[in-house]
Amino acid sequence: MSDNNEALLVERKGHVETWTINLPEIRNPISAPEVVEAIVENVDRVNLDHDVRAVVLTGAGSAFSAGGNVKDMVDRAGMFGGSPYELRDGYRNGIQRIPLALYHCQVPVIAAVNGPAVGAGCDLTMMCDMRIASTRAWFAESFVNLGIIPGDGGAWLLTKTIGPARAAEMALTGDRVDAATALDWGMVNSVVEPDALLDAAHALAERVAKNPPHSVRMAKKLLRESQHQSLSSLLELSAAMQALAHHTEDHREALAAFNEKRPGEYTGK
Hints:
This protein is an alpha/beta fold and 269 residues long. The protein folds into two domains: 8-209, Alpha-Beta Complex (2-enoyl-CoA Hydratase, Chain A, domain 1), CATH 3.90.226; 211-260, Lyase 2-enoyl-coa Hydratase, Chain  A, domain 2 (Orthogonal Bundle). The chain has twelve helices and ten strands. The protein has helices at 33-48, 70-75, 84-92, 97-103, 120-127, 154-162, 164-173, 179-185, 197-209, 213-225, 231-246, 249-259; strands at residues 2-4, 8-13, 16-21, 54-59, 109-113, 117-118, 130-134, 138-140, 176-178, 190-192. It has a seven-stranded mixed β-sheet, with helices on both faces. The chain has a three-stranded mixed β-sheet with strand order 6-8-9. α5 crosses α6 (154-162). The two termini are 22 Å apart.
């Protein structure tokens, strides 16, 4: 599969899709309406397509994403223009749709961070389930340096990922965090050389995609719910999902494959 539009390139190989933010000349900002629409529409699509089992998200060119378009901020254009009330609605009806969409994406999303991930670009990596960084990557929660705050959920996302103390350090200083430090802090799963980045991200995606897709989607849902539910509530949800899992054809195939010491062949049924 290959669906190439101006904002987001979508390619499918087997059960894995690669989404590439495709605005390299302006370092892949995600504040533009076309980027928001492309990400939201593709999340909605893969949620309904059980043949898609993992997604790799990356950026074209040298940057992963510069976050918001600073030129538009200077010009007070697009989502950065208008009265305070219009600005609020611009965020709510614009860039804030991305964290909500990715949070509810049923398919695991792996960020392949090829270069700088700045501001909302840093937060975009935190919206993904797993992250692999190039040695050229760096991360900055740099909103404070521009006299603004994380308007896309960064305070929540960073705290959930690296804890309150390190999230505070990033958000209140705006300082850069290099790939090695990001690995040490648990921001990323691994760091690889630039030429190996996409191969490493796809290898991780394939490790996910080889499993029964219903089980993967339900496990991801439980991981999301665990962030705000009590243990007793999560156990109730787990029991209900487990009952569904036990009645899938893929569960029976997984048991047969285990007993016969062979890879499973799963259909999503």
